Amino acid sequence: MGGKQKTAVSRQEQLPAASDAELRGLDGDIAALSAEVTALQQSCRRMEAELKDLNGSLTTPEMAREIEELKKDCAGYAEKLARIKSATNHVTPEEKERVKSRQKLYCKEWRRRKRMATELLDAILEGYPKSKKQFFEEVGIETDEDHNVTLPAAV
What is the pTM of this model? Predict the structure, then answer.
């Protein structure tokens, strides 16, 4: 446990003595330099924030390419809008409503007929000795599910 330590001591008489006026002057210099350091640090933080913003934004060539792409998109949309406006096959609200009501009627009829067929088939299958799948194969019945068809939701 015997470590050695060295200690340095300066001799006071070698340093020139400073007067109170000199010390106050040095304190003033320190305060002024501290204020300058604080101002420079704030300026540095502002510049770093500005640099971060600039690094996050597009460069001039990138911005030019982006503008060109947006102009092409805009021209394409304008052309599409012009085609739509010039089209003569617009669907009137009355025709749209008529189609919707017919679809509703057909779906209602589809549900009714499917329910009737299911009830009839269930009645037949009560006395049938084989499985439902075998019965459907023998008779040749195809279901909506066989063709991945689903009845639209009620409107």
Answer: 0.41
